[in-house]
Amino acid sequence: MRNTPIERKLIDETIEAFQIADFGKATIREVKAIAAKAEAEAGVEFIKMEMGVPGLPASAVGVKAEIEALQNGIASLYPDINGLPALKEEASRFIKAFINVDLKPEGCVPVTGSMQGTFASFLTCSQCDEKKDTILFIDPGFPVQKQQLVVMGQKFETFDVYDYRGDKLKEKLESYLTKGNISAIVYSNPNNPSWICLKEEELRIIGELATQYDVIVLEDLAYFAMDFRQDLSKPFQAPFQPSVAHYTDNYVLLISGSKAFSYAGQRIGVSCISDKLYHRSYSGLTKRYGGGTFGTVFIHRVLYALSSGTSHSAQYALAAMLKAASDGQYNFLNEVKIYGERAHKLKEIFLRHGFHLVYDNDLGNPVADGFYFTIGYPGMTSGELAKELMYYGVSAISLITTGSHQEGLRACTSFIQDHQYAQLDERMAIFAENHPV
Ligand SMILES: Cc1ncc(COP(=O)(O)O)c(C=O)c1O
Prior knowledge:
This is Aminotransferase class I/classII large domain-containing protein. Keywords: Aminotransferase, Pyridoxal phosphate, Transferase. Its cofactor is pyridoxal 5'-phosphate. The structure is a single chain. The chain is α/β, with parallel strands linked by helices. It is built from 16 helices and 15 strands. Helix 3 crosses helix 12. The strands form four sheets. It has a seven-stranded mixed beta sheet, with helices on both faces. The chain folds into two domains: 8-44 and 337-434, Aspartate Aminotransferase, domain 1 (Alpha-Beta Complex); 60-332, Type I PLP-dependent aspartate aminotransferase-like (Major domain) (Aspartate Aminotransferase, domain 2), CATH 3.40.640. The site of pyridoxal-5'-phosphate has 13 residues, from helix 5.
């Protein structure tokens, strides 16, 4: 057995100090804190792949617009609760340009990040019909969304889509929907953590079942158009970002400034409610609020109660970024495609040293190179692999925390620096030697 880059004892003691019984269940923040402590004590650099935060400068278009807005004095004014009219217009136009869907500005509602968008959506969806008290996750997924439901005391069900791609998705979804308790279905596409992308035929299944069983689809587009296998960057030109919006009227699209525009710090996104859903009234909402439609309750009741709108200057930033993208003057995907390049190099290193990709294809096509990828190692559980890699100065989170039933880890490319490919190669060579397959 060759020595590991970080002394095993140091990692074991650090994990013990955090009182984590099962490292497979450690949260992102815990993994980050343990890696930081071990790095400081060992004096050996960690290759950090646990956090899913942007590692690039914020979009200059957004920063400029936001500074100008502040200089023009908007900070003293409460933003319109419905959203800045220019942002609503641009969000609607952006959806037409990049998804090829018609959605009126009225339904495009600024939120303090998609995080608030899902919170407000979960809450509103859960109040529409008292028989429908459960949210269904097409997992793997973003763990904080389940925490949101725990915080608000709502129920959820979940399944790992790994074994239910393509036609199999229909029967699986129906096994939940026929029970009549599901108010909404949520998934991200491209998916955090697996980077699978649901295909048109799968989105059609979801959309048609949503109409049939009268449930609302919450389509989380946090990684908008970041399936780099195709060039989705040309406004008003195919190919477009795939969306369930082509197959049902019961949907909310969650578009975030955080990843596509590296604008996470300003907490800005738009929740885009379909025209039909916006104007629909529900008995549960009428009973609770004395009136209103899905759209007006979402804005005037829920968002008003949560934060009374969204940071005024950030709305100017997002309006400018969306406008520049739709005008074809700003190719936002050019700025973020480096994540795909990093994933390509990192995957090659891991695969060469005996690892495999866990979620590796979309109905037969290899998954795209993007913000995340998933890896496993023969004979190791998620928890064992996550812990073992810490001895090699590599930090990543276990798939268990994402609702996946597969053994493996999520690796994020956002913090990788150029000199770390050689470092990873060296360390994984030792790993492979120490763990012959
Ligand atoms: C799938 C998914 N949804 C939502 C978010 C949060 O987005 P925002 O920063 O807009 O709140 C993230 C961030 O990591 C994510 O991965």
